[in-house]
Amino acid sequence: MHELPLVFFTVLAQAAAGAYLILLLSQPVNGMGERKLSIGILVSMALLSAGMLVGMFHLGMPVRALNLLAGIGRSPMSNEILLGGAFASFGVLVGLAGFYGKGTAAQRKALRWVTAVFAIAFVATIPKVYQLSTVAAWNTPHTTIQMLVSVFITGGALAAVLGAFRHGIAVSIAAVFVTLALRFDYITFVTGVEPVLAAQQSSLWVTQAIALLIGGALAFFALMKQKSAPPILLSVCSLVIIAELVGRVSFYNLWSITM
Q1: Residue 164 falls inside a structural domain
Q2: How far apart are the two ends of the chain, measured CA to CA in Å?
Q3: How far is CA 190 from CA 55, 213, 216, in A?
Q4: Is the pTM of this model over 0.90?
């Protein structure tokens, strides 16, 4: 599958951005120490970097990513690359600054919020790359909704693993509920515009739904028990990321130019 690098890039990047935002927003409430927060940020940035590295293989030659920067401001893909790079760079910087205690507390806090702005702009730009009038199955609000909800499904689970247990799990559960609630309408739309391609994705859609249901059930169990057992949280995180990877494969499989 030619788009497989993009599958990993988009899902892992969204997970990293979601985790960063949830870790940052929950810290004042859960009392997480700055060092632990910084470790969580650095792990998120490592995941983001891995996704970006894999994503470059879609271009054939990674150096072509530099050529795409010529379209900044006009091309959603160029904006995506720029904002992703800015988020990764600032994320690593703020993670290292917090871990080693560089600068004043006020400076580190300000830098974390600047990075949050880049994270939000980055994940908001990703769906714009796929809002194409020539691809009927993508030309729908469902494309934007699914990709933004994915930020919270995967990001929430990852944040729970990295220390924001209650907030991360709660966000992930809520996002799983939203995406499953919208599933019927989405499949109905895709079946209407691309019936043949839609039929070919049925097994992937079922697999994604099952993984999300199991992951959501485990997350709910952990939340009710109020126990942040690492094996359970890792299982939840793995399940929802796998589910979103499978769902993203089905999304790219729907690519078809409308004549």
Answers
A1: yes
A2: 23
A3: 26, 22, 25
A4: yes
Specify the residue for token string 């060092």: 35
Q: Please state, in angstroms and as integers, the Cα–Cα distance from residue 147 to each residue in 66, 107, 151, following that order.
A: 25, 32, 7
In angstroms, what CA-CA distances link 112 with 46, 97, 251?
A: 17, 10, 33
Q: Which residues contact 146 (CB under 8 A, 6 or more apart)?
A: 179, 182, 186, 247, 251
Residue type, 163: G
Q: DSSP class of residue 49? A: H
| Distance separating alpha carbons of residues 203 and 46, to the nearest angstrom | 32
Query: Where does residue 86 rank: exposed (0-12), middle (13-18), buried (19+ CB within 10 A)?
Result: middle
Residue 258 lies in a domain: no
Among the residues of the chain, which ranges form H helices?
Answer: 4-30, 34-56, 64-68, 76-100, 105-125, 141-161, 165-181, 183-193, 195-200, 202-225, 230-253
Contact between 87 and 122 under an 8 Å Cβ cutoff? The reply is yes
CA distance 18 to 20: 5
CA atoms within 13 A on the CB side of 211: 20
In order along its 259 residues, the chain shows pLDDT tens digits of 678 999 999 999 999 999 999 999 999 998 899 999 999 999 999 999 999 999 887 665 555 556 666 667 778 888 998 999 999 999 999 999 999 999 999 999 999 999 999 999 999 999 999 999 899 999 999 999 999 999 999 999 999 999 999 999 999 999 999 999 999 999 999 999 999 999 999 999 999 999 999 999 999 999 988 767 889 999 999 999 999 999 999 999 999 765 4
CATH number at residue 204: 1.20.1630.10
For residue 223, what are the domain limits? Answer: 3-252
